[in-house]
Amino acid sequence: YVSPILLGNESNIKALASDKGLEISDLEIIDPETSELKQELVTAFVERRKGKATEEQAQEMLKDVNYFGTMLVYTGKAEGLVSGAAHSTGDTVRPALQIIKTKLGVSKTSGIFFMIKDDKQYIFGDCAINPTLEAQDLAEIAVESAKSAKSFGISPRVAMLSFSTKGSAK
């Protein structure tokens, strides 16, 4: 069961939903600029970044939905963050790298995305973060992607795909 939290200006979100014929009246909408959680998240952000951001910088950064959403996850107020359709990979991943960080014992940050076709679910590991990897990195990402699949109830079968062979993508 999922209870989505939409981040952004409430009137803009409602207008867009109305234009698209979507019913969102039962969804929570939080505006990072006016949220009652903002100060709590700013304080937690400054503490987490330990001297790398002032309170004023944190106030500005948390106006961004990706930073705000990542802080919701970090503080346990949300279980996950979905982003990327309207934001670059860098803008989506950067807050997580700064705030949540890489899992202990894992040397490379990687990402996964889901694809659903008919009644089949697929997870693709690290299609957007690391452009060049060594064999050991690929193995680690395959193992971590398989663990992620299991955590979503998907029985993992791992296949390796190559983005480019000897520069063929140029």
TrEMBL record:
One of its GO terms (molecular function) is acyltransferase activity. It holds the Pfam family PTA_PTB. Residues 3-170 form the Phosphate acetyl/butaryl transferase domain. Gene3D superfamilies: 3.40.50.10950. The keyword Zinc does not apply. It comes from the Bacteria. This is Phosphotransacetylase. The lineage of its organism: Bacteria, Bacillati, Bacillota, Bacilli, Bacillales.
